[in-house]
Amino acid sequence: MAGCHDSSLVYGVRDSQLVHVSEVLRGLECGCVCPICNEPLVAKLGDSRAHHFSHNADTDCTPNPESLTHRYAKELIAKRLRAVLPAFEEQVSYTSSDGNVSEAWARGAQEEFVADLAEVEYRGFSESTIIPDVFLKHGHRKLLVEVHFRHPVPADKIDRIKSHFIEAVEVNLNDLPPNCHAEYLTRALKESWRWSWLNNRSHLRNEVHQQLTKCHERYLPKFHYLPALTCAGPRIPSRKLESAARKMDVAAEWIRDAVSLSATERMARYIAAPLDLRLAVHCCYLRISPLAIPLNLMQKTRGQSILKEHPVYWQTWLFAKFCIGTRSFSARDVESLARRIFESLNKPSRSLESVNGFTDVTQLFYEVLLQFARQGLVIQADGPKSWLHEFKPRARTVEEAAELIGSLKPAISSNRFAPDLPLGGSGRI
Ligand SMILES: [Zn+2]
Prior knowledge:
Elements: E1 11-14, E2 17-20, E3 41-44, E4 52-55, H1 65-80, E5 82-85, E6 88-95, E7 101-108, E8 111-114, E9 117-120, E10 134-138, E11 141-148, H2 155-163, E12 168-172, H3 182-189, E13 195-199, H4 203-215, H5 238-245, H6 248-258, H7 263-272, H8 275-286, H9 311-322, H10 331-341, H11 360-374, E14 378-380, E15 391-393, H12 398-406
Parallel strand pairs: 11-12
Antiparallel strand pairs: 1-2, 3-4, 5-8, 6-7, 9-10, 10-11, 12-13, 14-15
The structure holds zinc ion.
């Protein structure tokens, strides 16, 4: 049997769904009614004519095969709960107040949208001005599907969709003949070239735009823009510090054992350690009591929330790992190591780079290093371009670092208990 028929009626309604004549039993047993007049239909499945329905009783009803095919396609999309989201590529630009224009590309790959809910001609939008052909929903994500069959989507409908910021795609079935059956349509719906965006408000584009906006603030923070030294949290994290203080013995042993390990083994062991032990290890290495950590190593930094751990954990790490010795380093060096240690930095959105190659993560470390520089913990190197700026440790040895830290005021003013400090010696973290 051919995929499509002549202009006779081939769609009937059974259980309030449109069915094709190829899906039903012969005669009145088909159990269908006319989609227009609701009168019983007879399925004619003979050999001489193409299979079709006819009304059981005499009638003037002449359903339009094209509008029924359109409706059948909509119901099929809803039944399949699937749409194709075409690949997406858009240039995003941003003009700063001083007239500088930055541009970047937002690119998304083609993907399949698999819904858990679908409705044909959904009327649930409070602005009932939009009635999509098919409404698909997956979790919180909504997608409108418009079916282009004989009539393209009207421009004013696209405008209304855009003005409500709803994602919408169009599937073009215009080249198909009327009266298609399900298999034929299903095949067409799987062809990705038929799908195009009517309105794309992907988070990707927004994020790229945000990145562009931010990169005008980036790399240029003058010292007078830097915030005053305050604690990262509303309170000093006394419990965290006390908990680390109780682990100083374990930490000292940890550092001694670490000497015989390879860098990879040491890293794996560090990642597996609980946060309070990590903090104790930092302190042991820096030869200070956790209770003597200054505010500088738990300070508030713009963007600190992208790291889930309390800043005292990663700022002491940053200082111990990078800010002692003779090697210069950049925020990107810190970033690449931090990504291996802190799981929360590896969300895809944290990898988006602005035109000048900074991610949110680079920016966070850059900001805190600038603050360190102002507070005298590191030295900011000069460079031809501000984003190439590197930092140099001020303390060349652990002893100098301990002296430097010791000269700063501890965040906790009174030591409620002072454990004997087992100090790290020549170990590494
Ligand atoms: Zn009828």
